[in-house]
Structures are given as C-alpha cells and as structure tokens.
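Changelog excerpt

This revision adds worked examples to the README so contributors can see how folded entries look when concatenated. The first example is reproduced verbatim below.
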Amino acid sequence: MKNCCRMLNQVKISILIVTHDSYPDIKVTIESIIKTLLNISYEIIVVDNNSSEKSVLRYLKEQSKIGNIRFVPLSVNLGFGRANNIAFSLSSHENILILNPDITFDANSEKNILELIDFVEEDETIGAVSPALLKPDGSVDRNYRLNTEPFQLLAYRFKKIIYSRRLKEESLPSSPRLRVSSLAGAFMIVKSRNYQLIGGFDERYFMYSEDLDFSFKLKKYGLDLFVLTDLLFRHNVGSSARKKPYRMIYHMYKSMVQLYFKWSIFAVARNALLFIVVIPFVVIEILFRSIKGNKNVSD
C-alpha cells in the first residue's frame, strides 16, 4: 500500500449513514467503526428517515454526544438519496464513504479503508470504489453490476428469488480490481468533488436504483467504477427492508422504471407509463416470495 505512513497520519473521511428503523444494526456498525478506525480522522453523519422505533432514536441521540458523530433526525421519510444529500451537505472531508447502517467493520477494516482511498486517488478518472461484501452466512453479496441492461437486471432478480440456494455458492471474481458498470450504495467511497460534480443522488428516487443512477452519472462524466474484490466487509443485507417487504418491492420496481425512463425513454411518456409498468412486477414478485417464503427484499 503506497504512502501508508502518510495516509495513517493525514487521511480524513466523512462517513454518511442513512437510517430508518435500523436498530440494532446501526449500533453494531457505529461501535465497530469506533473500535477499528483508530488512526484515521473521521466524522460520522447519521440522517434518520423518521424512524418509528424509539430504540434507534434513543441510541443515535446518545451517540451524538461524541464529538465526531452528528445525528440529524427528520420528521418525514425523505428516501435514501435525499437523506444522503443532506448528510453530504454537512460533511467536512474530501473522502466520502456512503455506508449502509448494517455494515460491520473488523480488524482489517482500517487497512482496507486506506487501500480504497489510495486506489481512488491513483487516477482522476476513477469515480468511485467499493470493497467486496459478504453476507452473514459468508456468501457473496454482489454489490455491483457488470451489465445494467433492464432485462438483464430483471432476469437476475428473479434468478435470485428462484435459485437463492444455488446463488449462495457464487464466488468472488478472480480479478482483484474489477471494473464494473454500477456500484451499490451499501458501501461506496467517492471524492467530494465528484459527488458535487454529478449533483449527488437524484432525489426523485425514494429507495432503490438511486445508486444505479449515481453510477450512471459518474460514468457520463467519463469516470470509472471499481470493486476491489480482495478487500472484504460484512453486510447484514436487507435488515431494514425485511420489516416492510411488500412496500419495498413496490419502491424497487418503481425506481427501476424511473431509472430507465430517465436514461432511455422520452420524458413525455414517463409519468403515463410509470405505474402501468411497475404494478405487474410488484404482483409477480410478491407471489414468488409468498411461495418461497422469502421476505428479505434485498436478497
């Protein structure tokens, strides 16, 4: 790792976390960050999207008494992208980590963060970088897309539902530096200047697909996206989504249609077709999940 000593002394990072009924995962995440990032100067900005669980609010208010943790409670759920933009507007550092409230840091995490920052600084054409993510059972959480064509995404989604056990055997790519078409918003490091360049997250998405849109905008400016597959973090994927699975299914397909209407179809037809296209996929997925007994919308 280049400039290791310099990085240990000088690296600064703003960690942006959006929560909604994310307890106890957010507690595990914050405490693991505090325990492991000992030589990095960091700030944590948590924006809560109107959680109904008192335990989340109580914990975050208590943590905000710590000097480098800032808690912003919202009176309404503004969605993932808009809440992240609020967090970004309060950030102080050039390195931005967009982080889910269900990621766990371990003994290797500080070294991994430094390597990710080193990598994104290697070349100005690198827009964002992510590590590889593993689910609690050790299987791969594919936090990236190599192909972002609509029918490919739909095919893979239903493949995950129908062949979920088989996909648990999926292995990490052999390439340690994997160039991808999009990155997931669960864990993404981006420079503040690039976040500003693309205008942050498109706030018209409520949840899901805003990270695809974020990726598309970075690529529109000629910036590349990478996953460093030998750097690992644990992700308790879908912990919040499991609490309201059918509502999340609706938002998932709605945002997917919004995404491709924005990037592929004339705006005139967008609003008229939006719900017509969304509803059949919502019904189909609810039926499949009812049959399979799988309520983890993120899985």
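The second example, added in the same revision:
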Amino acid sequence: MDSQRLFTPGLCCSCGSSEVTINSPLYCSVVCKESASYVRYARSYRSDGRDQRPDIAEGIILRLAFVLQGIDPAREPTAPEQFRELVFKRAEGHCEKCGRPFDFDPLTRNLDSVPKVHHLDGGSNDDPNLKAWCGKCKRDDAQSRFLPAEEGSSQNPYARELELRVLSEVPLRPCDDEKEWKLIWRRLSKEAKEVLRNKSQLK
C-alpha cells in the first residue's frame, strides 16, 4: 500500500480534518504535527530493533506522553544548570519522590537511577516547582499521563490509534513514513496549498 495515496490535499495528513490553512497546509494543529513526528520517531527505531534498548524505549514513552498532553517534546521544560545543581544538592543524592539513591556515574548507572530534574507544574524554575527525581519516577510519571485510569478517557482511543500507526508494517499515512517524509513533504505541502487557494477563490 502506498501511503501517499491516503493523502488528500486540503485535509490534515495526520487526522483528516479540514481545518488546515495556507500557513499550515499539512496539519490542522500542533498536536497532529507532533503526533506524526512521534510516529516517525518510534517507527525509525522499531525498524532496526533499537526500540528494545532501555534508553530508547524510555525516550519513546516520554515522547508519547508529551504528545497525549498536547506538548511539543522539543519544548519540554528544562532547568538551567545552576538550578539543577541546587536541586540535586538539596536532594542529597536521593530521589525526592521515592528515595532511590542517584548514580551520577555515566559508565555504571542504570536508567532507574539516573538523576532527573522534574517540573511539578509548567515550566517555572522556582525552587518549589523543581524536584530531583530518579529515572524510574520520571518514566512512571510519563506513563501515567497516557494510561488514564478512567476507561472513558479520550486519550485511550488516541493512544491506541498512534500505537497502530507505529506498529503497522507499512506507513498508514504519508506523514508516518519515517523514510520518505523528508523527501515528499514539500511537494505535498505545495499540492495542499494549491487546493486551499482554489477553494478560497471559489468562495
């Protein structure tokens, strides 16, 4: 199946919505753009088996959590180095959530013991908002965001849809194609803009 056949110029290439614009002809929202980016990211690592590496698997989990929250992964809040040093000093070498000892040695530490600075609410770097967490607590927090407790949560079907797009043997959408997207998106964007211009002229 050719994923490009599933693209209809003038519709969002990720969800099929008609709410696209000349300025954003391929996606109807940042969420759809980041969802497609996540799918390509996960598929690229799955294609050669690297998704089985613990560090890669953690990155995929975190990225999915951001997408389901409507957050641009590239804009994940980060604390400047001076704040990180203060937070880790305050924590005295232990996770402030579970008490796990940190391992700062990059040659020996495992992912569960990697020290992380966690923002409790938003991107503020105020001291009360910054916590020193271990890698496991950070990962568990991310997982809790895309595995809602309530069965009726709107995130459940969307998470399943993204999983199907990642696991599919062939890309289900052109924007899911981890190998071809960089080569075709400009052409598809041009086609979509042309369709949108024509629609605008008919009004």
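Reviewer comment on example two: Residues 3-202 form one domain. The chain is about 45% helix and 5% strand.
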